[in-house]
Amino acid sequence: MSESESDDDFDNFLSLNIEKIENYIKTENEKYKIFEMENINNVKLKAIFINRNNEVYDVVNDIIKVDNGIFYKNILVDNIKKRIKHKGKTHHLLGLLSYNFFMEDVKQYSKNNINENEKIENIYFKVHDKIDTLFIRKTINFFKDLNEIIFIFIVKNENKNRKTKKIYLSEKKKGNKKLKYTKKKYNTLKYK
């Protein structure tokens, strides 16, 4: 066997094996695709309804479409308005929370913090004090279902017994003279 024949055989062998190897790599990569980082397109939305006795009486789960990991303020406000009236009761928003699980080096967040565990928890779970656009970071496909936005609603107090009293201005008769309930007060300062 000449050297050129062995090179041709080896090249044929390589070309056949390269196709097999490429197919094998593609199938293996598909298995591990769930561990790749991707932008979030859908987020779970959970609305928790609380009565006046601080008891949870209903939980509503939804899936909301998000634009490349950005949950805009106007969409957030619309979702809050939809859920204010629930089961014939009026509610108001008590809290807005978000949970965003992403994989990054946790040590970079805890370098300057003494209590490392507390800081790690605050990375993923946030309490929002105002209604604004929410940013949801890229997540591994396997953990996409963990990301959610939580609304906490409490029943609005329907107190019909108002604290302010109405003042009725009417005239009161005393003898022949009419008096009003309210009297004008004149400036009694005397100038020298």
* SSE order: HEEEEHEEHEEEEEE
Number of helices: 3
Under the CATH scheme, which class of the largest domain?
Answer: Alpha Beta
Gyration radius, rounded: 34 Å
Mean pLDDT, to the nearest integer, reads: 77
Low-confidence runs of at least 5 consecutive residues: none
Percent of sequence in beta strands: 25-35%
* Overall 3D form: rod-shaped
CATH topology annotation of the largest domain: Ubiquitin-like (UB roll)
Structural class: alpha+beta
Helix content class: 25-40%
Q: What is the level-2 CATH architecture name of the largest domain? A: Roll
Major sheet details: 6 strands, mixed
Overall tally of domains: 2
Q: Could you give the count of β-strands? A: 12
**Please, what is the oligomeric state?**
single chain
Cα distance, first to last residue?
A: 135 Å
Descriptive report:
The structure is a single chain. The protein contains 3 helices and 12 strands. The protein is α+β, with helices and mostly antiparallel strands. The chain has 2 domains: 9-35; 37-155, Ubiquitin-like (UB roll), CATH 3.10.20. Strands 2, 3, 5, 6, 7 and 10 form a 6-stranded mixed sheet that branches. The chain has a two-stranded antiparallel sheet with strand order 1-9. A two-stranded antiparallel ribbon has the order 4-8.
Describe the SSE topology.
Blueprint (H helix, E strand, L loop, with lengths): L2 H29 L5 E2 L3 E9 L5 E10 L4 E2 L1 H11 L1 E2 L2 E11 L16 H9 E4 L5 E2 L3 E2 L7 E8 L15 E4 L2 E4 L12
Parallel strand pairs: 2-10
Antiparallel strand pairs: 1-9, 2-3, 4-8, 5-6, 6-7, 6-10, 11-12
